[in-house]
Q: What sequence folds into this?
């Protein structure tokens, strides 16, 4: 059974078509890498899965329920880290964790403590004063401590330093192994997510242009890294000025 | 040939400042011939002179305050810091505005107090203009704002004091006023303060949430701890959660903010001899503040329940304001405090409570755009149209209120008080029900982020 499914979903914001006839089905217990250039529709797609956005046309279901009818039962099984998370600025981290924890039937205090320690978060810090990187770490803690079945991560690593990124990737892998988890990660940090994603979905101008297992992609592109494959997927084959040979290799591989 | 430079001027910041005093100056004859002033003219010359001094003081403070607000908006606009000489251009505009107002008021008062008084009047105007501008300065010390704001009540309420002071010692008064103005202007010109003023929104985002006030509240043990359980799914728990998000920063924050609004609006309504003021300002309050779900999280709450929580929050806000106002307004009237002498005022022919009741009925009209505009950032970003809609709805609510009041006035001799109360209750229920149905429908099909 698929954990979420989009059928011919189109989303228009006035004249802008953010999603254009997107059809996508994600099975349980998988890790999907959602790629695309800025404005390609990644955030909009993830928001459709949570029911924050509703399709202009088409059908979108999460946990087998239409997303406009998601109730507490379904939403409690879902965790999300948004690109620009809004927190309640006046709260301290400790207060926010207690507050958000009260929304869910299960809130793992032990996991919360472990994550706060491993991600080096100061419980007494005021949320409004957090650096962007620490705000992302906090968002990850808030999105995982209720053991969601579906974790949607929209640019979860963009503001973190390399050490923190490695910690978070390891933490996500642990969650995947410990929980019956399905993850969708939208990120431009392709080197970081390459080690964990099983399948790549690439969006361009609101359309799904690639939906394939990562191994198949590597095979198709001659063993190149995801970072090297991405420009080829979105049709930007311009070689790096400093390394013409690399550009030639890419074309050859693609051809 | 001359059109292009004029157009260029109209696009510059100075133009904004020129428009304000020119518009006010143009409106001056109408103010002068207003029955409230004309009526007083029949009294002693001292009365009329005090009235006009009062106008001068209030006028200068309000004009200064407004120009200060415009300055703040301009300086804190995105990328304002890269506009060459923006601060100097703004200061020039401000100086022109202050000078224009001073000249207009000096001439205005000269025929009442004599031409010799003109410099003193101009100095007085400049001082009050600078005070008004300082009050809207985001980096002006908050404690001083409160103190000056409280002290300002005296000259605005009883302008006779200002008149007598300047007439008794025009020279000393002028020197004192100019010195005080110079101190305020010097602060305005200080480059460090100017930089701080431009950066203020960013600093506020970093510090205000944990500033000295918040720390003091915490130290006093007045910060609230969360003890709700929305996981139970009970409606009241979600309403509590929304209340905590909005007003949990410290204990009694919500009730004190309602009390402030009610006290201020009812007090002003009494001072202005217009009970409807408390009703209209109540609508403005509901339009600007109150409960709402602020986050863009995927809260584990169904869309219909979310709409219900918001509807209840709106209802709590309007009941709290209007119920308290219904208690406090008659109380203030019973105290027989002095009223502003330069206002003739309206006869409270509808009684004290009828305007409040009608405003309560129409409250959903102004609450609707605020509650629903929180949904999508795309809507929020279109700030102008959003606020235009809010203002139009406010005007609509005021129009409905006035129309209903007039109708009540006409029919009150026909229907009994019981029938009037029953009609008001029926209307309130109908409006609230219509509001709820619309909210439910809106949340069923709108984007939440």
A:
């Amino acid at each position: 059974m698929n954990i979420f499914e989009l059928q011919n979903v189109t989303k228009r914001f006035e004249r802008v078509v953010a999603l254009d006839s997107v059809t996508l089905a994600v099975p349980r217990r998988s890790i999907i890498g959602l790629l695309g250039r800025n404005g390609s529709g990644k955030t909009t797609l993830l928001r459709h899965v949570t029911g924050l956005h509703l399709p202009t046309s088409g059908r979108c279901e999460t946990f087998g329920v239409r997303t406009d009818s998601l109730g507490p039962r379904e939403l409690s099984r879902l965790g999300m880290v948004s690109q620009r998370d809004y927190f309640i600025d006046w709260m301290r981290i400790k207060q926010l964790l207690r507050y958000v924890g009260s929304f869910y039937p299960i809130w793992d205090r032990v996991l919360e403590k472990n994550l706060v320690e491993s991600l080096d978060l100061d419980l007494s810090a005021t949320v409004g004063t957090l650096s962007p990187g620490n705000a992302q770490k906090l968002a990850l803690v808030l999105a995982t401590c209720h053991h969601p079945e579906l974790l949607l991560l929209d640019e979860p690593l963009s503001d973190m330093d390399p050490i923190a990124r490695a910690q978070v990737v390891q933490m996500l892998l642990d969650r995947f192994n410990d929980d019956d988890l399905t993850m969708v990660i939208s990120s431009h940090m392709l080197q970081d997510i390459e080690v964990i994603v099983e399948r790549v979905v690439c969006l361009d101008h609101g359309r799904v242009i690639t939906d394939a297992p990562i191994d198949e992609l590597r095979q198709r592109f001659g063993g190149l890294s995801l970072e090297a494959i991405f420009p080829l997927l979105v049709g930007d084959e311009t070689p790096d000025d400093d390394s013409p040979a690399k550009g030639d290799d890419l074309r050859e591989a693609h051809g | 040939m001359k059109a292009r430079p004029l157009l260029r001027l109209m696009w510059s910041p100075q133009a904004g400042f020129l428009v304000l005093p020119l518009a006010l100056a143009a409106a001056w004859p109408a103010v002068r011939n207003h029955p409230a002033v004309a009526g007083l003219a029949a009294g002693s010359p001292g009365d009329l002179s005090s009235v006009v001094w009062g106008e001068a003081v209030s006028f200068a403070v309000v004009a200064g305050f407004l120009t200060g607000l415009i300055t703040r908006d301009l300086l804190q606009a995105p990328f304002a810091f890269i506009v060459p000489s923006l601060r100097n251009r703004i200061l020039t505009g401000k100086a022109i505005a202050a000078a224009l107002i001073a000249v207009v008021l000096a001439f205005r008062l000269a025929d009442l107090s004599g031409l010799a008084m003109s410099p003193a009047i101009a100095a007085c105007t400049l001082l009050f203009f600078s005070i008004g501008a300082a009050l809207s300065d985001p980096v002006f010390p908050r404690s001083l704002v409160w103190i000056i704001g409280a002290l300002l009540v005296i000259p605005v309420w009883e302008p006779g004091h200002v008149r007598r002071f300047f007439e008794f010692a025009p020279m000393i008064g002028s020197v004192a006023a100019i010195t005080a103005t110079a101190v305020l202007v010097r602060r305005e010109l200080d480059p460090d303060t100017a930089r701080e003023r431009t950066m203020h929104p960013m600093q506020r985002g970093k510090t205000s949430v944990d500033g000295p006030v918040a720390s003091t509240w915490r130290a006093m043990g007045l910060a609230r701890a969360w003890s709700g359980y929305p996981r139970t799914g009970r409606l009241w728990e979600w309403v509590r959660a929304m209340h905590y998000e909005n007003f949990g920063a410290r204990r009694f924050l919500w009730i004190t903010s309602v009390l402030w609004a009610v006290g201020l609006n009812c007090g002003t309504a009494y001072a202005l001899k217009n009970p409807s003021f408390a009703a209209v300002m109540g609508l403005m309050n509901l339009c600007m503040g109150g409960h709402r779900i602020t986050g863009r999280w995927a809260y584990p709450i169904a869309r219909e329940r979310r709409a219900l929580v918001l509807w209840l929050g709106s209802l709590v806000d309007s009941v709290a304001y209007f119920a308290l106002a219904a208690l406090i307004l008659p109380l203030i009237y019973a105290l027989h405090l002095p009223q502003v002498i330069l206002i003739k005022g309206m006869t409270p022919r509808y009684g004290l409570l009828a305007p409040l009741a009608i405003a309560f009925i129409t409250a959903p009209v102004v609450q609707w755009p605020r509650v629903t505009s929180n949904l999508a950032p795309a809507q929020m970003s279109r700030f102008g149209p959003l606020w235009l809609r809010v203002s139009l709805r406010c005007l609509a609510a005021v129009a409905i209120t006035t129309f209903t009041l007039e109708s009540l006035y006409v029919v009150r001799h026909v229907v009994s008080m019981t029938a009037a109360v029953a009609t008001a209750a029926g209307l309130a229920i109908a409006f609230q029900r219509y509001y709820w149905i619309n909210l439910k429908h809106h949340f069923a099909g709108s984007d939440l982020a």
